[in-house]
Amino acid sequence: MMKEILFGVSGGIAAYKSAAAVSRLVQQGFGVTVVMTNAATELIAPKTFESLSGRPVRTSVFHTDKIHAHIELAREADLFCIAPATANILAKAAHGIADDLLCTLILSFEGTLLFAPAMNTVMWNKPSVQRNVRQLVEDGALMIGPASGRLSCGETGTGRMVEPEQIVAEIIRLTATSNSNSNPTSFPNKLS
């Protein structure tokens, strides 16, 4: 039976990497439904994800063929990956803010929730961001990354979204096990 993945894309420049991850997931036989924030649509066109996934991209609670999109989409998915997970999305998720479809889905989803953080090193190191990440992990969410390296701003440090291959490998691993909330892949971050 095909596994269903919700793939959330928030407004970070690493959104272009998410297109490669979605493409690889589809090639691996997953059903992928992409949900984008408005900020993400400013960085990469929803049509890109529609072409790669073969499905409509979801951007709004109100403009969909599903009456209760946030409930129906959440119940249909085996795993929910948010990549890139910006500081904004991490904060909203940690505090239960549901002001768009992506955040509402995070609250409605009961399965494995995987965040791939991506932001500038200064942002990643902020105590508020670290508190939000700790809260999400305490609540049962998994983190993959961030990695260290050259950032889009030209600086070098921790904050890069991990590569699409790593995200796909982790999704495959998590969906292949019966208890997918155990032993997430460890990547360097300030919390370790």
Task: Please identify the top-level CATH class.
Answer: Alpha Beta
In whole angstroms, the N-to-C terminal distance is 36 Å
CATH superfamily: Flavin prenyltransferase-like
Contiguous helical run count: 9
Mean pLDDT rating? 88
Largest sheet: 5 strands, parallel
CATH topology term: Rossmann fold
- Category from helices, strands and their pairing: alpha/beta
Rough shape?
globular
Our Rg estimate from Cα atoms comes to 15 Å
State the domain count: 1
What proportion of the residues is helical, as a percent range? 40-55%
Number of β-strand runs = 7
Low-confidence stretches: 178-192
List keywords for this structure.
192 residues, alpha/beta, Rossmann fold, 5-stranded parallel beta sheet, 9 helices, 7 strands, disordered C terminus
Please explain how this structure is put together.
With 192 residues, this protein is α/β, with parallel strands linked by helices. The protein has one domain (4-176): Rossmann fold (3-Layer(aba) Sandwich). The chain is 42% helix and 19% strand. It has nine helices and seven strands, in the order βαβαααβααβααβββα. Strand 1 (4-9), helix 1 and strand 2 form a beta-alpha-beta unit. Helix 5 (87-95) crosses helix 8 (127-138).
